Amino acid sequence: MAALTDIGTMRDILTRHGFSFSKALGQNFLVNPSVCPRMAEACHPDIDGPFAVLEIGPGLGVLTKELSRVAQKVITVELDDRLLPVLDETLADCDNVTVIHGDAMKLDLASLLKEHAGDLPVVVCANLPYYITSPILMNLLESRLPIHCITVLVQKEAAQRLCAAPGTRECGSVTLAVNYFAEAEILFPVSRGSFLPAPKVDSSVIRLRLRQEPPCTVRDEALLFRLIHAAFGQRRKTLANSLCGAGYQKPQVTEAIAAAGLSPTARAEELTMAQFAALAESFL
Ligand code: SAM
């Protein structure tokens, strides 16, 4: 079969299966032939032996095919049932791929990995549907799945935010949440013309290498994330006003900010992870 990134081949498959793109499911399929091999190569740093890959949203299977070349097992989750017969055809020669029909946000991924990856080290590699980039990443990180690394194609702005250094202007609550679990880096840009249909914005491939230990220690992790979320809820306001606006009592906020050694006029985006950790500790 000709390469799946070939537009003629892709259109032929889509027409034969009567498939039309769903904007709601973030269906922008890769047609740039160099992106998938680069992602497949980059997705397993520090793993020398066999490994398994979890992919979310295979689409026509263009990245899945490349992953099946480098991994011992590929488990790929697709929500759109119209793509299942397409994948039967495009992945017919990939014996090490298991296609699961379901919603990656709702499936029990831990059981899925246990069943299909066994004891193999697991990495995630995907061209994520844009409408759920952050929820999927947070779900993967917070559920503490046995994952070594997450390599994903996301919108350029999302990439910049996810990989920003804490304490800088590009930083948001998701930056700090990601930073708590992983070391994030932008690997390479992908132009909007690399997709069919072409989205309105450019993209980037990012890689999150999961940490063995978080960068700071807190007694109440859930409180840390609630505070981060509240602080960035109204990012133009001062930290004190944002926290009060989120329902925390003013005397407690004032006292905790002082006890953490922070300025009452500081803004969320100026704070490092260690400073948020100190704030969370002084709230207890
Ligand atoms: N991997 C393919 C590629 O690179 O050409 C397709 C990527 S496309 C950006 C996103 C894919 O995710 C689509 O196939 C879409 O149907 C699927 N998808 C959307 N929401 C999903 C969900 N909640 N769970 C699993 N797959 C989903």
* Radius of gyration over all CA atoms, rounded: 21 Å
CATH topology of the largest domain: Rossmann fold
Helix/strand/pairing category: alpha/beta
Low-confidence stretches: none
What's the CATH H-level superfamily name of the largest domain?
Vaccinia Virus protein VP39
Write up this protein:
The structure is a single chain. With 284 residues, the chain is of the alpha/beta class. It is elongated, with a radius of gyration of 21 Å. Helix 8 packs antiparallel against helix 9 and helix 9 packs across helix 12. Helix 4 links the parallel strand 3 and strand 4. The chain folds into 2 domains: 204 residues, Rossmann fold (3-Layer(aba) Sandwich); 63 residues, Helicase, Ruva Protein, domain 3 (Orthogonal Bundle). The model has no long low-confidence stretch (mean pLDDT 94). The structure holds S-adenosylmethionine. The site of S-adenosylmethionine (SAM) has 23 residues, from strand 1, helix 3 and strand 3.
